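User: Second chain of the day. Same drill as before.
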Amino acid sequence: MRDRSLETGYRHFLLYVTGLVLIGTALELAFTEHTEGFVQLIPFVLIGAGLLATGAAIARESCRTMLALRAVTSLMGIGALYGIYEHVRHNLIFELEIRPMATFGDVFWEALFGASPFLAPGVLGLAALLAAAATYRHPMLKRR
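Assistant: Same format as last time:
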């Protein structure tokens, strides 16, 4: 019985940390005015869905909430990868604009560490991994 309680505590810890990471990410995006156009609003939608799914998983552990959390974390992971792509693409375009004679290879490293850091969207991926870890081998997902 004690092992089950400890395991539940770990799962809840992961979910609470996920919620904090998502809230912190939303605040950072809002403070940096990450709201120019539809594409920049995608992380806010994913964060909202992540917070709802995480809250539901904490409030009521069931097969349905755990599967919903897994689905949302999958979308968050895809969104993080898309965000990394967008950041690198925008940095690459900028570098090629200021150095029109440069080749792709000349500006690639500068594009990775430009004005839009390529790992910034990775925080959304981190939150997705934390939440997914909370569902790993969850008792509610075991086949009966």
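Helices lie at 2-31, 38-59, 63-98, 104-112, 122-135.

User: Great, on to the next one.
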